[in-house]
Structures are given as C-alpha cells and as structure tokens.
Amino acid sequence: MHPPPFPRFPRVMGFFDRFKKTARPQSQPAPASAQPSAPPAGAAGVVPPSDPLQPGSSATLVQPPPGLAAAGAPAPDAPAIPAELSNASVKTLLLAACEKLQSRDLPGALAIYESLLRDAGDRADVLVTLSADLGTNGYIEQIVELVAPRYDAERHGPATGINLLQAYLATRNTTAAQHLLDILFALDRPELEERLHGFSNALAELIEAEKSGTLAPPPAARPDGTSAAPPAQKTIHLASISRPIWSYGLEAVPSALPPPKEGRARRVAFCQLSQLGVTDPMEHAARPEDAVARLTRGLPLWFAETFYFAPHYAPLAVVALLGDASYAVFPTEWTTDNLRQLVSTSGDPIDYVFTGALRNTNDDYELTLRVWEVKKFRERRQFTARWTPATIDAALADLHAAVCQFMEWKPYPGGPAYGRASAPAAWCDTLGASLSWFLADKQTLPSGWLAEPAATAAALAARAATGERESLAWLTFRDRAARIGLSDTLPPAAPALAATPLVDAARQALGG
Fold first, then answer.
1. Residues annotated as region Disordered (predicted)?
2. Do 364 and 260 fall within a single domain?
3. d(CA 169, CA 42)
4. Which of 197, 243, 258, 403 is least buried, going by the fewest C-beta atoms within 10 A?
5. Is 3 inside a domain boundary?
C-alpha cells in the first residue's frame, strides 16, 4: 500500500482540492483552493445581462452587484496598505494577503487586494490566485465581490471562471451560476467539457430544489466573514492496493498468488467510484460507510483482483482517504486533470486508468465506467450498467465480462485458476469490508469508524463456505479483527470453510 499525499493542484477550486489545506513555502504561490464543506451566507452576486449569451458574443461579466464598490475602488472601511508593501511586487502582495487571510485578518487582506487590483486587476494570474486563496480560507462571498466585476473569460481564461462558478454554487446563486456556465461552455475547450458537465449537473440539482421550494438558504456567516463551517483542514491521500486485499497476511502461502510476472506488464489503475448526487461530501464522508459507499471501493478492488490473475497486467485499486479519519467521497466525476494528478504521484508509470461514477435514484442504480489511455489522456471506452437490488448480480457480471473482453484479459498460465464471482454484489461487499478492516489494522482508519462490525463479520462468515476466495477472505479478516481488538464482534461459532488444500494451508499459516 502506498498512500502518498496529493500534490499541489492547479489553482481551480475543484474535485480533490476542496479538502486540501497544507502549508506551503513562502517562495511559492498558495496551493489549490478548497471549497468549504458548507457554503457561507448568500451573496448578491453578479447580475447577468437579460439576454442569454450566444456563442461568439462577448464572454465578459461586467455588472457588479448592487451596493458593491466599483472595480478598483477600495472598500470604505478597509485599512490602508502597510507602508512596507507600498512598492512590493505582485507576488509579494499576493503572499502577504494570503497570510492575512490565514490569520483571519480579512480587512487587512482586502486592503492589499484592493491596492493590487487597482494596478494589476486585469492579470489572469492575479485573479486566479486571489480567488484560490479566498476559497481556501473560507471567504467565498469575497470571491464574488472582487472577481466577478473584473472577470473576462476570453482574457482571463477558465481557471478563475471555475473558481467563481463554484462560489456561485456555494452561495446558491443559481442565476449567476447558469450565466457563467454558459460563458465557460462558449469557450469551446474540449478538455473542460466533462468538468463543466459535472458543474451543470450540480447546478441542475440546485435549480430543481429551488423550484420545488426545498433549497435551504445558506447558513449565516461567521463574525470573521468566513463560512459558517470553516474549510476542512484535512488532506486527501491515495491508497494503492497492488494485490488482492484478501491476500495480505498470506505471504507464507505462496500458492495463493500467481508467480512473479515476466517483462513489463501494463499497469492499470481502477479508481474509487464517484457518488453522484452527494450534496455535502464532507458530511457524507464522516458517516460510517453504507452498502453503496462500500460498493464504490469494492468494485475497483474486484477488477484489480481480476487483472492481478492475468499475465500481462500489473493492476492497482486506488481509494482515497480523508486525513486519518475516514474515506473521501467524490461527488463529481474524475477529470483529465485528476488523472494527471494520480499519474504524477504514482511511483511507476501507469498505462490505463478506470474511473467511474455511480448514481442512486430510489434504488435504481446507474454506473458509468470509463477507461483512459494515459499516454494521450484520452477516453478509450465507456461502459454503462443499470440495476435494481434484484438485478445487481447480473448487471455487475455483464459489466465485468465486457471490461475483461475489451482489455483482452487472459488467465495466468501455470498460476492459480481464477474463477468469476458467482455473486458479484456480495463479493464486492466482502472486498470493501476487508479493505476497511485492513486499513484499520494499518492504523490508517480508526477502528471506531467501522460500520456495524458484528453485522459485517456475520456477513463475511456466512459467505466463507461459498468458495475458496471467500474462505481466504474470512481467514484474513478474522486475523485482522484480533489485531484491532474486534474479536468479540466475530460470530461465536467458526464458519464452515471451503475444503481445499489452499484454504487448509492458509488456516495453518494464520494459526487455526
């Protein structure tokens, strides 16, 4: 398992970086901004023109909200800029303003920003850094106030626009968000299309809630001007599982796994699925995992396990952890930017990446799975599966077969036979549970976070006799339970196990 911290991200309030908050060297710009887990008080926002933007028309937001100071004019109650900064460079001013934000001196930061914007307010690097630092520190309304009157999409590019768009979404300003989304789509940037569609889906949900009268108002701002819930102080880490999760602990049983692979195997990463429709990922991540959340990690573990038993692949299952407290939850699909971030943190080159997004609507599930070729960062194929609780096994089996066929999966010659799971949903649940107890054993997740340990143990015990891998999974699961102090949650009677030499060897290696 290799859980490197995520690197600094581009200055766009985005998918992973909404959770990120790390120290930075004084000589570098601020890190990627973070979206707070709860939005601040509503802002007036930009008043869009009455006619919709059409392709080819001016992509500029020019109308400040009523009551805002004109662009470039200092805030009425802002203190004067410190004398030592009167002739400072743009970089020094941005760093000084960020330090003011971090110390919760908003008036001091605004004084620096107003001075900076008077002289360099048309520079794209200034606007994107300013909006990123405000977002990181929880001052979402100020992004709207300072950036919206100045932002020109064609001149300043999409990065600042995406920060501004997320500020509109956080403050529930659906009208301004929709107008800005039109502008960003009109830039016709193919590399942004998927990301913008993700924002479009989030906006659609807000608009629907607004129409139905169920859209809750943003909470009141804190006295220091930040959002009512301060930005998360946790960092996302990736855990890369390079072997079947049930095999950890069976190192003394060499026949459990294929022999070493010869030559350079194609490296393929199967990433944790996004959960579309999650409106508060921080709150959702704090809960003990439910069956759907476990599936978002169990399915990649199943695919990685399958390709581990193929001679030409070196697979990884990639899951995300939020600090040392819980898994991370992704409410939008991965983008090519996120893929680049994943690849850049991998110790070995990656050839293919599988990403996916799962949506649950009243127990009707839809999964979109994408395979990306890393060399060109292009999508090679898309798979779709739909199911209800009654049809999940058939749907997952068909999806598994389609992926194996597309990737030309072949069995490992001379290695242990690999049989397809007869009950894919149950097997994914077993793998997901095994992962959580494995990470608790490694002190990467707190054991107190594990959901219903007695019920989980009973489920794995009941499945133990259904196959050789299920028996191996139970044995390593039981072994971890003892180490993390949860032996008392195991069933009092030992379950029946598959009667095979491999299971007997594993039982002996694990002490009964």
1. 17-75
2. yes
3. 10
4. 197
5. no
> What's the pLDDT tens digit per position in 116-145?
998 888 999 899 899 988 887 888 889 999
* CA distances for 190 relative to 72, 195, 197, angstroms: 33, 10, 11
Number of neighbouring beta carbons within 10 Å of residue 501: 9
Number of residues that this document lists for the chain? 512
In a shared domain, residues 381 and 442: yes
Which amino acid is present at 50? S
With respect to residue 220, please indicate whether it lies within any of the assigned structural domains.
no
- Tokens encoding 9: 């991200």
Is 70 exceeded by the pLDDT of residue 176?
yes
Nearest alpha carbon to residue 114 among 165, 61, 78: 78
Do 354 and 387 have their domain in common?
yes
Q: Which of 133-137, 211-215, 286-290, 352-356 has the highest mean pLDDT?
A: 352-356
Q: What tens digit of pLDDT does each residue of 216-272 get?
A: 666 555 555 555 444 444 567 888 999 999 999 998 888 888 777 878 899 999 999
Alpha carbons 76 and 438: distance in angstroms, whole number: 57
pLDDT band, residue 75 (cuts 50/70/90): very low
What does pTM read for this prediction? 0.60
DSSP-derived letter for residue 192 is: G
Same-domain check for residues 292 and 425: yes
Residue after which a domain boundary falls, among 164, 180, 212: 212
Q: Domain check: are 284 and 428 in the same one?
A: yes
Rounded Cα–Cα distance for residues 189 and 177 (Å) = 18
Q: Which of 105, 116, 134 is nearest to 32 (CA)?
A: 134
Q: Is residue 223 part of a domain?
A: no
Q: Which amino acid is at 14?
A: G
Is the distance from CB of 24 to CB of 119 less than 8 angstroms?
no
Q: What is the 3-state secondary structure (H, E, C) of 405-444?
A: HHCCCCCCCCCCCCCCCCCHHHHHHHHHHHHHHHHHHCCC
Residue 19 is classified by DSSP as G
Cα–Cα distance measured from residue 338 to residue 220, given in angstroms and rounded to the nearest whole number: 32
Q: Are residues 205 and 328 in the same domain?
A: no
Task: Tell me, yes or no, whether 73 and 109 share the same domain.
Answer: yes
Find all residues with CB under 8 Å of 399, minimum gap 6, and list them.
Answer: 367, 369, 383, 385
- Which residue range is the domain that position 200 belongs to? 17-212
Residues 189 and 314 in one domain: no
How far is Cα 2 from Cα 312, in angstroms, rounded to an integer? Answer: 22
**320-328 average pLDDT score:** 85
Cα separation, 346 vs 315, in Å, equals: 12
Cα–Cα distance measured from residue 108 to residue 488, given in angstroms and rounded to the nearest whole number: 56
Per-residue confidence band for 487, with pLDDT thresholds at 50, 70 and 90: very high
User: Do residues 127 and 156 touch, judged by C-beta distance below 8 A?
Assistant: yes
Instruction: Provide the domain count of the chain.
Output: 2
Question: Would 69 be classed as within a structural domain?
Answer: yes
